[in-house]
Design brief:
Shape: elongated
Largest sheet: 6 strands, mixed
CATH topology of the largest domain: Udp-n-acetylmuramoylalanyl-d-glutamate--2,6- Diaminopimelate Ligase, Chain: A, domain 1
CATH architecture of the largest domain: 3-Layer(aba) Sandwich
Number of helices: 10
Number of strands: 11
Number of domains: 2
Amino acid sequence: MTVRELYKFFEEKIPRALSCDWDNDGLMVCPDDTKEVRRVLVALDITAAVAEQAITQGYDLVVSHHPLIFHPLKAVAPGEATVNKVIRLLTSGVSAMSFHTRLDAVEGGVNDVLANAIGLCDIIPFGKNGEEMGRIGNLAAPMSLREFAELVKASTGARQVQISDGGKPVSRVAVLGGGGAGESGAAAAAGADTYLTGDLRHDQLTEAPERGMNLVQGGHFFTENLVCDRIRELLLEADGTLTVDVVNSYPAEFV
């Protein structure tokens, strides 16, 4: 398939209409949309290391969750980190696509993957202001918050998670991968006794015992990175002859 054909496939599978108004994703870099795609590299983020791997190892396309270009570029000249990656990819003939909040919201996307990974059942969407990106469902059997934290670590690959005990067993769980601090109230309104997301505010963690909802901060990367395997599945659904590799793009370490 060409870059253009592959992007059209993703536009149908992950409609732009699901994106938040403030978001920027889609076909980020495209030197030639008629180029045949044979090798694809998938990552949560297109870091400089990911871009260099794509270039030096002969990939035609990089697909990510987080947008390569999020804020408008004021100039295309060497210096700024995002611009440097755009120039390197363009001049090397490598295209890049990113699917952000629409991949959070779409059925089978980030949050369905996360909900399924921790074993939720009877999963339904939740959210505020008509943006139902999160998912809420039930565990097969209630467990303690510490037991649930161990389940999250085992399911996501996180080395550690942060918990704040709302004083309830974990049974009905809301999840939102990545930066979900703003959806805490919507999770409570949806009936969750426990809310798992990537990033929470300090005040939310300190007030959880007073508000009566367990909070689990699982890490932005770890609560979203599972979707890379789903992206790989979609690529192979589009064209089963593609070579698709998934790379861990997280440069930070726990010390």
